[in-house]
Amino acid sequence: MRASDLVVPYPTVALSTPAMDTVHLLAEADLPGLIVVDDAGAPFAVLPGTQVLRLAVPSYFQDDPNLTHLVDEAAADVFIRELGARTVRELLPPQPHELPVVPPEATALEIAALMARTRSPLVAVVDGGTLLGAVTLHGLLDRAVPA
């Protein structure tokens, strides 16, 4: 099984896309993350949904989960507004990581190892500089796990 057998069309966002638009896309399409593309349309990064949450949830709540119990439900339900006017560029980690990208001929094991190594729920499939789509963790497991 190759990436070309597993690839599906996948939505992308630009570095300048408002973070809240990204949240809406993740939620409405029930996606584990998004592919961020540069101005030329080439993959720049993979933005897992958990990274979006990391910037939406104030660090003091992440550092001390007991503080979350002190916030009433009405205030807790609107935490995502912490993203404000941020862009996708601001959601990306500051240090560069290995880009989860494979060619169409990559094997299922190569894809799985890359997902595990980069902690990414999706891998972009690129052929000659053209983004073909993505292989998702769900799609990989659906095909790799015996019935």
TrEMBL record:
Q: Which Pfam families match?
A: CBS
InterPro entries the record matches: CBS_dom, CBS_dom_sf
Q: Which keywords describe this protein according to UniProt?
A: CBS domain
Which PROSITE patterns does UniProt cross-reference here? CBS
Q: Which SUPFAM superfamilies match?
A: CBS-domain pair (SSF54631)
Q: Which residues form the CBS domain?
A: 94-147
Q: Which Gene3D superfamilies does the entry link to?
A: CBS-domain (3.10.580.10)
What CDD domains has UniProt attached to this entry?
CBS_pair_bac
- What is the protein name stated in its UniProt record? CBS domain-containing protein
Native source organism of the sequence: Catellatospora citrea
